[in-house]
From TrEMBL:
This is Two-component system response regulator. The modification 4-aspartylphosphate is found at residue 52. Residues 3-119 form the Response regulatory domain. It comes from Acinetobacter qingfengensis. One of its GO terms (biological process) is phosphorelay signal transduction system. The keyword Phosphoprotein applies. It comes from the Bacteria. InterPro entries: Bact_response_regulator (IPR050595), CheY-like_superfamily (IPR011006), Sig_transdc_resp-reg_receiver (IPR001789). The keyword Phosphoprotein applies.
Length: 122
């Protein structure tokens, strides 16, 4: 089963993502901040990471950079999902190694289609 790590400090957003992902047959892992997200990515090796940007401590840009540049996790696609909707945010996210950048609130179909672009779904 495809495992997706949700990294978001909002319990409401995490619940919504989890609800959508489980409905579409994905297994989910959760981290409430960037630091835990990086640690879980290393230990659990999920198939994809959904990364919020605005979080206390290590923010989503920093966590994305750590995941996409580390030899043991660089193969894992990171999709940033944020309320930050400026062109500079999108550009910065991609420069940190994110494969894609979605803006909250995310449409369910768009989210699933984006995930399927970066993972092998049987």
């Amino acid at each position: 089963m495809v495992r997706i790590l949700i990294v978001d400090d909002s319990p409401t957003e995490t619940f919504r993502f989890k609800e959508i992902l489980v409905k579409h047959g994905f297994e989910t892992l959760e981290a409430a901040n960037g630091e835990d997200g990086v640690t879980l990515t290393k230990t659990e090796q999920p198939d994809l990471v959904l990364m919020d940007v605005v979080m206390p401590g290590v923010n989503g840009f920093q966590a994305t950079r750590q995941i996409t540049r580390a030899p043991d996790t660089r193969h894992i696609p990171v999709v940033i999902v944020s309320t930050k909707d400026q062109a500079t945010d999108r550009l910065w996210g991609k420069r940190q190694g994110a494969k894609d950048y979605l803006v909250k609130p995310v449409d369910e179909v768009q989210l699933i289609d984006t995930i399927k672009q970066y993972i092998n779904v049987n």
